[in-house]
Structure formats: C-alpha cells, structure tokens
Automatic annotation (TrEMBL):
Pfam families: Sulfatase (PF00884). Residues 491-501 have a biased composition (Polar residues). Belongs to the sulfatase family. GO terms for molecular function: arylsulfatase activity; metal ion binding. InterPro entries: Alkaline_phosphatase_core_sf, Sulfatase, Sulfatase_CS, Sulfatase_N. This is Arylsulfatase B. PANTHER family: ARYLSULFATASE FAMILY MEMBER (PTHR42693), ENDO-4-O-SULFATASE (PTHR42693:SF53). Gene3D superfamilies: 3.30.1120.10, Alkaline Phosphatase, subunit A.
Length: 501
C-alpha cells in the first residue's frame, strides 16, 4: 500500500473516495444501506491515517437526473453508481454559482465568489484590464493550502479562472505543481494546430489521445504514477464533458441508437464515456492499492444545460444559468473507504464551499491557521455530518446565491426565495415542492419580507463589486430560461418531451 496506516492518530484522515448508494436504514440526516455499509461499521472511529490522497472529479453541465443512482432511465452509469454504493450520496448538494467560472471559483477558494466580484463567467472582453480577468491574486485556492502540507498537486482539464499568458493567473501560479488542459474553450476532438491544450505553459504539439475525456484520464493516471509513494497527492480532474459542443465517439453514439433525439443521443454517449473513464481511474487506484486511502468527490459544476446539451434535471425545475434548483443543485458523491461509511444517502443541504474546509480537516490542517479576518471561509467541515455524528443538524441553516443583474436567491431551512429583475419575488417550500411548482409568495408575505431582508443583509457583507458583467444578450437569455418549461420526470420512451408548467 502507498500509505502506512497509523491506527492511533485522529487528525490525519485517509484519502477520500466518493460513492453513491440507495438507502434503507436512517439515522439523523444520514441513511445507510444494509449490506456493504453494515460490514464496515464506523472504521474511522478508532483510526486515523496518514494524509489521504484527494481526487476531485468535476463534470461540466451534467444533468441532475443523468446518472443511474439518481434514477436515470436512459443512461447507465455503473461506475459512478459503484462510487455511490461504496460511499455517501448527497441528494441536496449545491454549487455557489449557476455557471462554470463562478462555481469553480467558489469550489477552489471555499468562499462565496461574490466576495471578490466573480459573479459572471470569465469573459474575453478586450476592454477589461488583465488583472480583472482572473480570481484575485490574494484569494487562496485549495492547492495553496495542501502543497505546504506536503501534497503533490495537479489540475487536469478545464481551468476557466484566469488568462493563460499571465503567470500568476495560470494554475502553476495558484498552487498547482502540474497542469494539463484548457483555459475554457471546448471541443472534444482537439487539434494540435489550435494550440489551446497546454502542458504547463506550453501548447501541446501532438495529439496523443484523440478524445479529451480519455486523454484527461490518461494524464491523471500518469500524474498519480509519477508521485512518490510517500507523498500524498491532490488531483483536480476538471472534465469539460458533457458541455457543448456535443461531440462523442461513434462507438459510444451507437450504444444509444434507441434514443431518437440526436442531441440527447450524443449527450448520453458523452455521459457514458465519462462513466467509463471514472471506472478506469478507480480501477487504477485499486490496482495500486490507493483506493481505500483516497478521498474521491464526484460532482458537477452547475446544473444541466438543458436547452444546450439535452441534459435532464428532473425532478428539479430550471437549468444552468438561473437560480431554480435545476441550475444550482447537483449530483455529489463522497467516497473514502477508510474514512467514511459506505452505502449511505445524506439528505441535508450542503454547498461546494464546504469542500475546502472538509479537505483541510482530512489533511490534518487546522482551519484557524488558514483563516483571518478578510479571508474567512464560508464552508464547513462535512466529515462529521457525513458520518452521522451530528444527527439531524444541518451544515447550513441559510445559503445564498447571486448573479449580478440577473437574480439572487436565499434558502433558509426548506424555504427558498428567488429574486429576479424579470418578475416579483418567488417563494417555494423545497421540503414539499422540490420541483418549485407552487409559488407561495402571495400566501406568505411575511416570509417573503423576512427572506428578502436576509438576502439583503448578506449582500451588505460583500466587499467587492462585480469585476466582470455579461452582455445584454445573456441578460435576455436568462429571462427566457426563467420563463421556459422543463421536464420534471424521467423519460419513459427514448425521447425527452418537455412538459408545460
């Protein structure tokens, strides 16, 4: 095994590997499955381990409903489902941003990205000065905490948080030891002449693997194999699938010939390829005796981009770019055989801002050592919650979202208020109406006033104004998304039909 276990130390927890499962026995906010979960009864209680490896696997624009453990009827994902069966499936996991770049900024900093003005997608606007085209230099990211603690660090895939030609905005200037991937653009069959895939600072001159999802996995395995056996590693595997353009390998497309809608068919093929590559990576971890000591987190950067990539967010309403549940609630699996239970479904709300403090705890890094007044983390350590140690207590009573000029939202308990420039505030009870079909605003004006005040009070804590604003085109696009109909059921046929609200 790569790491020697010390059974008497608590502070250093093993590598996390994320898994999803169906559930049968409930304790607090956690539901445990009979079988594999019961065989591994609380293995972490009397043990602690050398610093775990950490693997974050991020999908791009993936639908909430498009994995088997969330009930997909069209797209089998046996490898993702296996992670769920071995770990903790979180059914109310949120991102802090409804589009790619702001969400990733929140993930990596552990702070509401609105605190440093990063509310919109990174823009290649020639009129914006270069310093404002990246997450500010003094915002620390996950690898900048883990590398001083002895971790080898790498990002493979999509960056989308700065310019490629400015060293401090490059991943190698933000705490990563190794970088392979693209800054933001897509296209899943890359061409060397496009010079948009970098290894370090240099464009690759030869396409070694024709499809990026496969290539990123190869690079991930190579990084893991290069890391010395006595060195823990942190790998941020940031896939750009199933983001558009919809491009898949012909063999994968052929598997889904029964799906008549062409966009949905190609999307399903891309999802299948992602699942296959997750299986390939997990197999390598098992073959090299690293799986049990690796903390794996699998999730998506935002809700499915329904109209663009034919993803499905059922039973959630909405899509990427807006603040209905379909834009901000995502699949999330935590797997760590040596540090978390298996066969568990966790049902309380959490947010991706929690990842950084959770990883700090797993690595034995005291939170008080990394926080100071101007850089307070907004997330919490999820480990005791995922282990069922806090019963029904929620990691967060209140969570917030804002996209400047496009909308804001607050969830307090099960009540959620959405404020947009396009209509009056809306109020939903997510405990009984996860699809956000019954607007309670007119029935509960006092609650609307209370949550509007909470949202306003939170906004007054934000020191920064937005450094980048999207064009009027995207403002119009946002309104269309709020007014569009969405599917809230899994398809029973091979086509996805859009229901009317």
């Amino acid at each position: 095994m790569r790491h020697t276990l010390n059974m008497y130390r608590w502070n250093f927890l093993p590598s996390l590997t994320l898994f999803v499962s169906f559930s049968f026995l409930t304790f607090g906010g956690v539901t445990a499955a009979v079988g594999q979960g019961s065989e591994r009864a609380n293995p972490w209680q009397a043990s602690a381990v050398v610093k775990p490896n950490v693997l974050l696997i991020l999908a791009d624009d993936m639908g909430y409903a498009d994995i088997g453990c969330h009930g997909s009827t069209q797209i089998p994902t046996p490898n993702i489902d296996a992670l769920a069966q071995d770990g903790v499936l979180c059914t109310q996991a949120y991102v802090s941003g409804a589009v790619c770049s702001p969400s990733r900024a929140g993930i990596l900093t552990g702070r509401y990205q609105q605190r440093f003005g990063w509310e919109h997608n990174f823009a290649f606007n020639p009129h914006v000065i270069p310093e404002y085209k990246a997450v500010p230099k003094d915002e620390r990211m996950i690898p900048q905490y883990l590398r001083p603690a002895g971790y080898a660090t790498a990002i493979i895939g999509k960056w989308h948080l700065g310019l490629r030609d400015i060293k401090w905005q490059h991943p190698l200037g933000r705490g990563f030891d190794y970088y392979f991937g693209r800054y933001g653009g897509h296209g899943h069959f890359p061409k060397a002449e496009d010079r948009n895939i970098l290894r370090g600072f240099d464009p690759v001159t030869e396409i070694e693997v024709p499809y990026t999802t496969d290539w990123y996995t190869k690079e991930a395995i190579d990084f893991i194999d290069r890391t010395p056996a006595d060195t823990p590693w942190f790998l941020y595997l940031s896939h750009d699938t199933p983001h558009t353009p919809l491009q898949a390998k012909q063999d994968d497309i052929a598997r889904f010939s029964h799906i008549k809608d062409e966009k949905r068919r190609v999307y399903a093929a891309m999802q299948h390829c992602l699942d296959e590559n997750i299986g390939r990576l997990v197999k390598h971890l098992k073959d090299t005796d690293q799986y049990d000591q690796t903390l794996i987190v699998f999730f998506s950067d935002n809700g499915g981009a329904v109209t663009a990539n034919a993803s499905l967010n059922s039973p959630l309403w909405g899509m990427k770019g807006i603040l209905y549940e379909g834009g901000i609630r995502v699949p999330m699996i935590f797997s760590w055989p040596d540090g978390l239970p298996s066969g568990v479904t966790y049902k309380q709300p959490l947010i991706t801002l929690d990842l950084l403090p959770t990883l700090l705890s797993a690595a034995g890094i005291e939170r008080t050592r990394v926080e100071h007044t101007k850089r307070k983390l907004d997330g919490v350590n999820l480990l005791p919650y995922l282990r069922g140690e806090f019963g029904d207590r929620r990691p967060h009573q209140t969570m917030y979202w804002r996209i400047a000029q496009k909308g804001a939202a607050v969830r307090d308990g099960d009540l959620k208020l959405i404020r947009t420039p396009f209509k009056l505030p809306m109020l939903f009870d997510l405990g009984s109406d996860v699809s956000e079909q019954s607007d309670l605003a007119s029935q509960q004006p006092d609650k609307v006033d209370e949550l509007m005040r909470k949202l306003n009070d939170w906004e007054l804590t934000l020191d920064a104004t937005p450094v980048i604003l999207e064009s009027v085109k995207w403002q119009r696009d946002s309104r269309k998304k709020y007014e569009a109909p969405y599917e809230t059921d899994q398809p029973i046929r091979s086509t996805v039909e859009v229901s009317q609200r």
